[in-house]
Every structure is written in structure tokens, then in C-alpha cells.
Amino acid sequence: MERHACARPSLRAWLAGLGPALLQIDEPLPVRHHLTALQHALEKAGRHPVISVRHPLLPDGRDSPIPVLTNLTASRSLVAGALGLADHRIAGEALARAAKGGCPPVVVDRASAPIAEVVETGSAIDLSGLPATVQHALDPGPYLTAAHATTRDPETGIDNTAIQRCWIRSPTRMTWYPYPSSHNARNLRRHWDRGQPCPVAFWIGHHPAVVIGAQAKLAYPQSHWEAAGAAAGAPLRLTPTFSFGEALLVPADAEIVIEGLAHPHDLGADGPFGEYTGYMGPQIIAPMVEVLAITRRHDALFHDYGSGLADMLVPENMAMEGKLFALAAAVAPSLQAVHVPVSGRRFHAWLALSDPGPGEARDALAAVLAWRRLKLAAAFDADVDVFDEAQVLWAIATRVQWHRDIFRLDGLSTSTLDPSLAAGARTTSKVGIDATLPLADGAGVRPVPPAAVSPPEARAAADDLLRRLRAAGRLEGAPCL
Predict the structure, then answer these.
(1) pLDDT digits (tens, 9 = 90+) for 7-30
(2) Rounded CA gap, 320 and 341, in Å?
(3) Phi and psi for 292 in degrees, rounded to 5?
(4) Which residue of 146, 346, 362, 402 has the lowest C-beta tally within 10 Å?
(5) Residue 334 · residue 357 · CB < 8 Å
(6) 143 near 165, Cβ under 8 Å?
């Protein structure tokens, strides 16, 4: 992954370089509904700035001293820049390489770790003092939405990290929802099978490259720290937790860490909660966490995701692109790019292939449809920009014959958050669309008329004219589709 060399990925340095892409809110803004409503309004307007709220108002009316950052990853171009990539279209291949690791972390003592500048234990613990958001009308209370839960496999000692939600129930207790098939859920069950509580540390806030690298789709058990370092272009600095020491490490340069224990069979209601699908997820039973300590920087920032918005979908989808690229490339050497579009939540993927051989597109489609969350995958020739939804739909409309180019696979694993599933269903049907054009029999060419396009020199002149019109503000009132 090509990037600017950096000794240490810094969230603050990244924010300082955003310029007009950072929207600073200086007036008090309630974290109950209002902050997320602002994100929805901006997304409806087609705007995705990083949002910094300097004076978040807690649900009880207090002004929190901890600013809130959100929309940190709502723009693919900003995320690509954070990853050191010139173009977001190559993120899939780059993150596939990062997932292979190769950048081991380094461990620093707590004395030199910013995350240990403030330590709150005992009666000083107060989760309600964190500016956690209440996002949707039916959410039952404030949630941690961007907390990376880190646990350890008690057999191998290998840690796992994943973003998983937590509902703050009291100053010292919160629910934690490790999705049942997740690696953290497996670690939890292994502790409980031994009659032991499961140690868990939730770290919040870091450079976006670290956040995305830590979401790499890996095998079990496999630590995410090398992938996070590879994505950030520098070894990730880790430090022992206050409560568990070297048995559980967290990023030394994170903003906030919440340490706790999930005791065997200590369960509570969680949800309903607005999910990435855009629908309210049902109320479920989740482990309860007894909080032992909160550690943070003295000037900590609180990272929040807008659940179901581009802010939450983009980083996970880009991480999925890395996984799907690796799966498809193993059987399709002509693979050029993979896109998991925000419009399809996490259920759709588009593949671009350059002159695929007979059956190669279908091989690639079958490979990626094995990934649990996907329901629909389509393959296109490389002249179709799979990152442009209009081109994707144009190609499906003009290059596909359903009887020839579509296939269905039944009984595959799926996400149980899919609201279209029948009650109690654990598997689903998936569809592949081969929108690549077949080779003409014996001719070695693909039977397609030439696309209707302007000459290259005219397109370049038009692009230059558009830049000048935008700079003069003459397109501000132009209608959108």
C-alpha cells in the first residue's frame, strides 16, 4: 500500500489537514437525536463533511467536556486519503494486501501512552458522562456505536477486535452485542464454558486508517493489529490495559478505553436499535459488562458512527471490498476492482474484470457469494466503472439476458439482520449476475456496439470548463436528478 511515510498515525494531525471538509459546530448540540438528525440532513443534501461538535449536550442537559467526532468515514475519497491511496477505487486490492499483515505492532509502557493520561476507577466511573448518542426515535437509550471491542481467545491468547454496539444502562454497566457468529462471541463463549468472566476492552477513536485496518476480515483466531498497522503505514502502538495488564492490549494512541468483565450468563435486554440495513433491529438478549475502569487522553475526543448512514457503511464496506477482492482474485486472475456500494448496504457487490476467460466471471461470483452478508453480486467488463451506479445499471440493462446470465444459489449463510428473511431463517438464496459480454463464437471478440462517447479531447475540454464554472460558483443552483 503506497502512502506517505509516518512514524505514528495521528487523528489530530489528520483532522488539522481536512480544511473545509471539517464542519465545526460551536453551538451546543444535543446528542439525543439532534446530532444524528444533522447527519441525515447532510446526507440527504449529498454532503459528507467530518463533523466536530465542541459542546455536545448530554441527555440530562449537561454540557460534556468531551467533543464528539462523527462522519469521520462518510466519504470514500477522505478515507482513501487517510489510507494513503490516490484513488478510492483501488481500496479493495490495497486492503486485501493489508489484511495479510506484515506490520507487527509495538508495545509501549503505560507511562508513555496517551490513553493512560486519565484513569477513572471505582466511584469515579460514570459512563453517563460520555457523550454517547441516542440516534433513532425508537432507540432505548445512549449507545457506543464506534467502540472496538477487544477480547482474547483463552486457549491461544490471540486477541480479536471488532466494532460492536453497547447500550449504556447505568454509570458502571452496559450491554454489549457481539454478533453470534463473530469471533468476539466465540471468545466470550470459550471463557464462559470455563466458568470464567470474559475480559473485554472497548477502545474508541483513532486515525481512520487504523479504524479501517482493525476491521479487516480475518480467520479465527487471528489478531487485527498487524492489519491495522499495515493499513496505517506504521506499526500500531499498543499498551497494557489498566485492569488486565499485558493479558489484554489496546492502542496506546486511542482516545478512550472502557475496560470491563462480561460475567457468565449475566444477560440483559438490548435494543431495538437502528441497524446498517436502515431498519430497526429487534430487541435481543445480550451480555452485560461490569465496567472496571475508564481511561482516556486528557483532551479526549469521542468517536460516534451514524448507524445506517454512509459514515457507518463506508469503512465496513471498504473492508469488505478487501475480503471480497482476496476471495475473487484467488479464482479470477482478470479481477480489476470490487465495489460494495452504500446503496446496497452490505448485501451487494460489483466486480470488474478485464477480458475474463470462459467461466471466470461466474467463478468469481460464486467465490464472493460465499461471504455471509452478500445476497447479490454482479460481474462487469472493465469498461464499466463499478463505482458509478448509473454505469452499473446501464450495463445490467443492456448486457444481460436473464435466461443466460443469472444464477441462484440456495441455502447459503446470511446475516440474520436482513429484514426480508422469514422468521427463524438462518440461510438465504443468493443471486449472481454475469454482465460480462460473452465471446462471439470463434471470433475472439465481444459482440457489443461501440459506446456513444465524445472524443477524448472534447471530454478534457468539458472537464476543464466544469472546473472553472464550479470555481466561479455558477453551478450552485443547477438542479440535481
Answers:
(1) 578 999 999 999 999 999 999 999
(2) 11
(3) -100, -30
(4) 402
(5) yes
(6) yes
